[in-house]
Design goal:
Structural class: mainly beta
Distance between the termini: 89 Å
Strand content: over 45%
Number of helices: 1
């Protein structure tokens, strides 16, 4: 008797599984089983301001590329466009407080094959209890006149101001220069304030080291 009951249960389970498989196949071929993937919508931009296009020939082909500085919902961006106006590179800077901005670009030649754009970025000012403000250098490089090698390195601070509101005030302005320290035909970058200095060397492929 028990064996007969077990056989009936096995047959019932098999028929149920077969029925589910058939329904799944019908839904698959009809398209009912394929559920559309949920698409996450990007967050809308509430505030955006862009600078004009600042044109400069980055790759030496006598056709100007363009820099565009953008403020987007409190974020600071730099975009590079090619000769045809297509955006080919973007970078977001790290701000520390309010009033941050990109305010200067300086083009330098590190070697016959490496061009540098020194980007001066004010990271913002914080006036809560104490005043703290600083600016930082970013190094944008292009190698062998190839726009696909564009890369940015977050460099040192070059301007600092601190005031505790009592008896301590400090302000430092560093100066950026380039110098061939190895007599190799390749310049290193020096950032100096009085007797304080730091040096940076480009290694290629977007990589830097602090000396």
């Amino acid at each position: 008797m028990w064996n007969s009951v077990k056989i009936l249960l096995i047959l019932a389970i098999a028929q149920s599984a077969q029925g589910q498989d058939e329904r799944a196949l019908r839904e698959l071929f009809s398209g009912d089983l394929i559920k559309p993937e949920s698409v996450q919508k990007p967050n809308p931009t509430h505030f955006r301001v862009q600078s004009p296009m600042y044109q400069v020939d980055l790759n030496g082909d006598h056709r100007a590329e363009s820099f565009v500085v953008e403020k987007q919902d409190g974020e600071d961006w730099l975009h590079v466009h090619d000769y045809f106006g297509k955006k080919i590179f973007s970078y977001q800077f790290q701000a520390n407080a309010a009033l941050s901005e990109i305010y200067r670009l300086k083009i330098m030649q590190l070697s016959p094959t490496v061009k540098l754009v020194a980007i001066h970025f004010f990271e913002g000012v914080n006036k809560y209890i104490e005043l703290n403000a600083n600016a930082r250098l970013y190094f944008l490089t292009i190698e062998n006149n190839d726009l696909e090698t564009l890369s940015i390195y977050r460099g040192p601070a070059y301007w600092e101001e601190h005031d505790d509101g009592r008896d301590h005030y400090r302000k430092r302005i560093y100066h950026l220069t380039s110098l061939d320290l190895r007599n190799s035909g390749e310049n290193d970058l020096l950032v100096r304030f009085k007797n304080i200095s730091s040096a940076y060397r480009f290694l290629g492929n977007g990589k830097w080291i602090s000396l």
